[in-house]
Structure formats: C-alpha cells, structure tokens
Amino acid sequence: MSDSPLRSESPVALITGGAQRIGRQIAKTLHQRGYRILIHYRRSTDAAEELAGELNNQRADSAAILSADFAQSGAAETLAQAAINTFGRVDALINNASDFYPTPVGRITEQDFDGLMASNLRAPLFLSQALASELAARNGCIVNLVDIYAQRPLAEHTAYCCAKAGVAMLTQSLALELAPAVRVNGVAPGAILMPTEESAFVSQEKLNIEQRVALRRIGEPDDIARTIAFLVCDAPYITGQILAVDGGRTLSQ
C-alpha cells in the first residue's frame, strides 16, 4: 500500500464516535494500517480536532473531522455524503457511536427510547444504506459495534439492549443483502473500559467483572481496535459474523 495519503487508491475509513475512547483507538489503528481516517463526532470537537491533528502530523492530509447528531432526521445521509466528498471515497464504515444509559422499566420515556435507538441502531442502518453503493464500488466493508448485552440482558438497560440486539440482526441482514461486493461483520465487546474515577463501587464492580471473565482481566480499547483492523484488512472471506471480544465473559452464566 502506498505511503502517500493523497493517491486515489489510499483507502478511507469513516469511524462514527471516533474522537474518544474505543473509537479513538480504532482510528489510530486503521491509520497505522494505511487508511485515511474520517473522524465523526457529535459534541467532542476538541478531542476530534486533537486526534486529527495527531494523525495529520504523522501523515499529511490523512485525517479529517465530520460532525453529526444522529438524533436529527437525515443526519446519517448528510454525513455519508460529506464523507464521500472529503476524500473522494469511502472504503470502510465503522459504526461505533453509541449512547449508553439506564432505562429502568416503569420510567422509560419515548425520548429515552428514541435517543438510544438513534445512535445505536438507526444511524448504522441509514449510514450503511447511504454508503452501500460507494462501498460496493470499492469492495469495501462495514463493521458494527454490537455488545455482549445484545444476547445477555443488562438489568435496567432494556432499551439499550434492544438496540444492540437490533444491530446484531442488522449485521447479518446487511451481510446477506450487500454480498458479494460488501462484507459486513460485527464486534461484540465485553468489559473494556471502566470509569476513571476511583471509588469503592468502581473497585468492587471491576472485581465482580474480573471474576466472571475467563481471562480474569478487563479488556483494553486496543483489543477491539485490532479485531476491527483484522476484519477490515485481513479477512476477505469473513462476512455476517459477530466476534465476541470479551475475555471469555460469555462462557460463564
């Protein structure tokens, strides 16, 4: 692959929620594999600009930022067109953006439901649809961030779990419908990032998670990023699959 990001054959990856946390590591990892990176963000302007600056310092004109609020009607389609316009192509779509907060039954509002569906399910669907022709022209791929909670419900998070279960089926449905030109896969992270603040609750929760994970440790964002890089760059005969990256969490009850 050419070292020059300005050559038309240099591939481009759009990463939603790419400014922070797992999305940031995905951006860095794909950038190391020669991709130009489109960093989508909603409110994290400073983080997005900082990351783009870091990547562009490593390789000129290899990163750009794009803002969109998926709660707004038509945002996904607008973002898709902006992504194509920025570098002239899109080869990989990484649907990483996600809202996550509790919705205890009895207190779930339509606003809660719509908000969690917008980022977790609606945006991946309509971004994939809007970019389907472009990705097909590039023999590209889509990777969706699912969750272990798509299969194993998390108490007081019914709306979120439903959204992620939808992403799991979306992954398989798109893989069938967009084949053979576009591969579509998913990654289901387990416990990857804990809150940064130190507290007795956080320490106990970390211990509880570690005791349920076969590998007895919390995962790192790099575990997810390297798996996504594998699916994007090194897995031309894999589609319709959801890879659990959870340290063996799904082995236990």
TrEMBL record:
- SUPFAM superfamilies the UniProt entry points to: NAD(P)-binding Rossmann-fold domains
Q: Which family does it belong to?
A: Belongs to the short-chain dehydrogenases/reductases (SDR) family.
Q: Which Gene3D superfamilies match?
A: NAD(P)-binding Rossmann-like Domain
**First-level EC class:** oxidoreductase
Is the keyword Zinc-finger assigned to this protein?
Answer: no
**A GO molecular-function annotation:** pteridine reductase activity
> InterPro entries recorded for this chain?
NAD(P)-bd_dom_sf (IPR036291), Sc_DH/Rdtase_CS (IPR020904), SDR_fam (IPR002347)
Q: Which UniProt keywords apply?
A: Oxidoreductase
Q: What is its EC number?
A: 1.5.1.33
Please give the organism: Litorivivens lipolytica
Residues forming coiled coils = none
One protein family per Pfam: adh_short_C2
Q: Specify the protein name.
A: Pteridine reductase
